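Could you join me in thinking about how sequence relates to backbone shape in a protein? We need material for that, and I hope you will provide a protein of your own picking. Once you have written the record down, we can walk along the chain together:

…
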Amino acid sequence: MATAKPPQFSFSGGAPPLCSLKGSIVSIAVITFFSLFYLSLNSLRTSPPSPVLVEHIRPTQTIVEDDSNDQSNGGVESDIFSDVYHSPEVFRLNYEEMERRFKVYIYPDGDPNTFYQTPRKLTGKYASEGYFFQNIRESRFRTLDPEEADLFFIPISCHKMRGKGTSYENMTVIVHDYVDSLIAKYPYWNRTLGADHFFVTCHDVGVRATEGVELLVKNAIRVVCSPSYNVPFIPHKDVALPQVLQPFALPAGGNDIENRTTLGFWAGHRNSKIRVILARVWENDTELDISNNRINRATGHLVYQKRFYRTKFCICPGGSQVNSARITDSIHYGCIPVILSDYYDLPFNDILEWRKFAVVLRERDVYNLKQILKDITHSEFVSLHNNLVKVQKHFQWNSPPVKYDAFHMVMYELWLRHHVIKY
């Protein structure tokens, strides 16, 4: 930074230097005084009064987006960004910039008929992985020029390996060899030691397989369905992938509060400690509909899904992992999810304010579950329900992808993380 030079005064003529210096200082002071006086007076005349900020009043912002690729509403989307977002305006502006600038390069290596490039399927409880593999190729974010890429996608699918009967040990070897081949063939990994690379896996066995490759765990961005603080998941680096069981059996619920007469509902396998406790404590309760096993299909057509429609709060305890597809089922069917899972980095947690549309509890709260739910007032329940309807679009996969859907939210998370990669 250049150093400011002191003013240079000319001492010409017959005046003494000291008098000339004093006169210059006085002149500058007078000019400065009148300049400040004029600016202050002008400011008082033209500036509007400062707004009074009231903490408990949070006006809703209505933002109209123009997106020619959104065919669900004729190309123009009117969306309300309310306090379900941590920072609605920041989200809006960053999202727009992401759509304009974000580019991802997909490594072309690997036989699509084996474990690479293409998804295994777009159905079932691991459909999120398949949809991402397909959506990234359908989207505006893909680039064929690696030199303009912000991030690099490693297209290896542990779900496909699982489908072909590959053992966990062999998965780790396959992943390790594939990443090594990319490092040897291309210069891009070594520029950041893999910090601008990412991979996607929804099956928990895929998480364990990739943990055998140290560079992926430490450096690359891991987009996973089981984001637990209790394992090597790094929230500010890695991304929580929502586990979505698609296609949904029934249409989305919402705006149907009068039909929701059951306080709480859960049915499922007791494959975790918290589920065992939940079933043992509450299965005989008259206000909570708790079953200690899955509902038998013989009891009727879509009985399980229909119970979501008539329930206020759907209990979502962690299973073999912290995550559960029941969370996105609850969101889809308009039932407030009650998260009962410690160490869970919820999907889009740094974008969405989960406590505005869900009840987030600690596992030890299971013993007081009914009272906690009964203490939620009707007005609070209505607010939670209305907010839940607003976020449903964020937990839905589409092909091709649609603005603000699950794919775009994951891409937004990746967009945020690529900004912190500095080498």
Q: What stands out?
A: The chain is about 35% helix and 15% strand. The mean pLDDT is 79. Residues 104 and 185 are 18 Å apart (CA to CA).
